[in-house]
Amino acid sequence: MSRPTVLRVPPLSPQLHAAVGDRYDALDLPTDADARAAFLAEHGGDVVAIVSTNGGRVPGDLIAALPRLGVIANQGVGYDNIDVPAALERGIAVSNTPEVLDDAVADTALALLLAVRRRVVVADLFVRAGEWSKGEFPLTDQVSGSRVGILGLGRIGQTIARRLQVFGCTISYHNRHRVPGVSHTYAASPAELARSVDNLIAVVPGGAATQAIIDREVLDALGPDGVLINVARGSVVDQDALVAALVEGRLGGAGLDVFAEEPQVPAELTTMDNVVLLPHVGSATHETRAAMRRLTLDNLASWLTDGTLLTPIPEMGR
Ligand code: NDP
């Protein structure tokens, strides 16, 4: 019996790439635009499923070139890399990988907050450069007991909040809707939230609704003693405004896992010692990536078996 044809949209991890190849007739979408057009003309009619990750785009014209496409299984909880309206209009199912990455991303947010406030990276360089023998390292700012605002108190945001409670932090948040059953203070807007905290952590989804939701007004509300942590998407911050605020000393510091045009990082940021930069590794642990991979493959297998998904994206209804 012939196996379903599954299109792998790069980049996929070697493990996910191999696992799809073991189970299905797998094709790889070429990265070169000309090669891609010829490839789709030849193979587009065979493809019934896509496997993608946040780093690989699934735009409307790709979906349109795959007339038999029935499912997009995305490894990642965010799916702003996919043209979801184009998929749903065709009745194409879309899955993501919620919950299995909450702990890893929350750990990353805490690591960034501690690294920026306690100047962990700068202090490490200080020791390595032999500066310690010449004098003490300057004092830093405490995270424990500080006021932290969470923009996006969802699955990951609440996992971050639980960690911060152990640190004795005062937690407030902004979502479009209040979260029932939590005691954290609700702020009516991102600017109001920023105005009332020492540290602001962004963990909202990317996409049009949150594009530059952290703009100059929010950054100025956070102020010269404030720190921004972004483990959401680069698109949620006005990156030019962020760089300007840091250059002009209107913002105290930043810890960033995500950027507007990854893997490009504004050159100004790489020279600042009040900024910690990570290469989008929020969920990148062995344990979590294995769990994300399993859930992606299970969604794919489930859909191919009986047309259901374990974790459909919210727009599909659960
Ligand atoms: P959830 O859907 O559980 O939570 C998202 C939260 O954001 C909800 O509380 C939601 O509340 C709020 N929100 C959504 N839209 C808006 C808006 N326009 N304005 C204000 N608040 C909003 O998602 P997760 O916690 O699972 O994941 C959050 C995001 O984290 C992902 O979408 C992804 O982009 C990012 N992420 C980054 C990773 C990394 O490697 N750095 C890894 C994993 C995830 P409400 O609906 O009430 O507004």
TrEMBL record:
It comes from Nocardioides ginsengisoli. Coiled coil: none annotated. This is 2-hydroxyacid dehydrogenase. Pfam families: 2-Hacid_dh, 2-Hacid_dh_C. PANTHER family: 2-HYDROXYACID DEHYDROGENASE YGL185C-RELATED (PTHR10996:SF178), 2-HYDROXYACID DEHYDROGENASE-RELATED (PTHR10996). Residues 41-311 form the D-isomer specific 2-hydroxyacid dehydrogenase catalytic domain. SUPFAM superfamilies: Formate/glycerate dehydrogenase catalytic domain-like, NAD(P)-binding Rossmann-fold domains. Keywords: NAD, Oxidoreductase. Belongs to the D-isomer specific 2-hydroxyacid dehydrogenase family. InterPro entries: D-isomer_2-hydroxyacid_DH, D-isomer_2_OHA_DH_cat_dom, D-isomer_DH_CS1, D-isomer_DH_NAD-bd, NAD(P)-bd_dom_sf. The keyword ATP-binding does not apply.
